[in-house]
Amino acid sequence: MKAELRAWRELNSFDLGPDYSNLAEFRRKAQKIRDKVTANAWFLVQRNGRITSIALDPVTLVSQACKRPEYNGFSKFHVLCLHDVEREKFDARETRLLKAFHLDALLSIPLLSSTKEHLLLASLKIENRDLLMEVDVESLSSIQWQEKLKQRWFGLREESLNFRKFDIHTDQQKPRSLMMCLEVRSKNHKWHGSDRDEFVALAKTLNMSCEQFLEQKLDKPHPGTFIGSGKYAELIDTLNSQDFTHLLFNCDVPASLKRKITQETYMLVWDRTDLVLQIFLQHAGSEKAKLQVELARLEYHGDEEIRTAVENFDFDKGYDTYEQNYRLNIAKQKRDIINALKRCHQQEKTRQEMRSVTRPLSLSLIGYTNAGKSSLFNALFGSEVVGAANVLFKTLETTTRNINLNAHTQLVITDTVGFLKNMPKHLYEAFHSTLAEANLSTHLLILLDPVGVKIADQIDCIVESLAQIGRTDRDNWIFVLNKMDLLTKEQVNEILEQHQIPIAISCIQAESILSLKDELLQRISKTMLEASLVLSHADYSKIHQMKGIASLKQEPIYLPEGIQIELQYREEQKFRLEQVLGYPLP
Question: 490: which residues sit within 8 A by CB, 6+ positions away?
Fold first, then answer.
């Protein structure tokens, strides 16, 4: 291949002329070289017609050239290739380069030995002074192409664009993904992946359309290609024949595989962790959430960023110093983020310590991602307190509010981040730090989604995660089936019976919310101690003090001999109540 590239480089700096007046001479020289070698070449051409770079592959050609400062914005370059067979279109890989680098055009020119005499021209459409991510392909004769150039075709296109300096206005192409679903069946290889339905839901959270699926079952990862040489060849052919924007793997794959596919197809390749990172990045709202996601990104992509930076290093000297400085810069970013997170954690710890002193009656909404926790949170308050949407990981930070279940019972309710099976390890700490709120709550409402991941898998995932933070008091857990409006009555009853779930609700039905409040009152009452007291009228003020600690089952009853109250309290509140009363509770 190196010998063939050296042969083609005889045409380096060849001047085609601003109007391609030297095209005939170029074709003659190219034909002589092509008679000696087996591979065609690709040429990067300036608007003045001078060839500046040559490669045997368009991705290599443009990727190397993109390091030039003049490539910012509209490139002022077009890519020329030679063909010796009849060609009616460019493949998807070539058009992706056209879109990614805003090239002036792609031009395919026939060799002298070709039976096809027409040139093939591809360019991005321009509409209303915007550069569209749509490709226009036309077939021209050499004379027609030269006439276009004489009429300043490149210059007129640029002048018709609405851009200032290098800020070109383009339409946004909707992401179209090819999904590669892998399943590794080896007991020696721990596979962390999503099934197809969950992975499609993850992709749709980023507004990605799932156009096509490829599947592969492996006993173990294959060396070199990971997925096997046959499936790898099929994957590359599919990517180069269709206009996808992303390739998604439903599990984590080696960075070397993603890099190899990108080099061959100029395709954006994401594995499962990449996808979840993008979702977290999109939905992170608070400073803490953004810091945690950025730290996870640096942990996962830091080494690859260093590799890419070093590979793109253009100078002969200072290579080692450049790599070392880049590593030090990444390490400094991590340290700065960790220090900022420590400050956030300290603020949270102070707030949690203040809450732990009184530890009021509280409830955390727990559930798998997209189970409807935020929708339920809003329904309980009758207004949109937190943003809710039918996407995964809409909530990435906790929200806490007070609510009155009845005239005498106040509850502190917290909305938490959703669970996910096999949470990527780089997001594990960020995810579990949000569960600290759940550990402070006296009760947990575990919301289950009947139309998502299997309910048994949801329960297993939630129970396992709660056990890891030391939450095993199942008497204080309240399981609730959500989205009953999407099921038949028979389906609801079957699920409730199979998984021993006490109640089913729908967040969009007001009567469901009332039923849930009644269920919460009953379940919470079962975990509380009760005491009936008669206070003297002189101790009236103590009632208000005790209401700040415990709950009253009903309004105080005023009798001639005193004030009768019915208290509900937890064991850990008993000492504080006795301090207020001045004597032991019965």
Answer: none
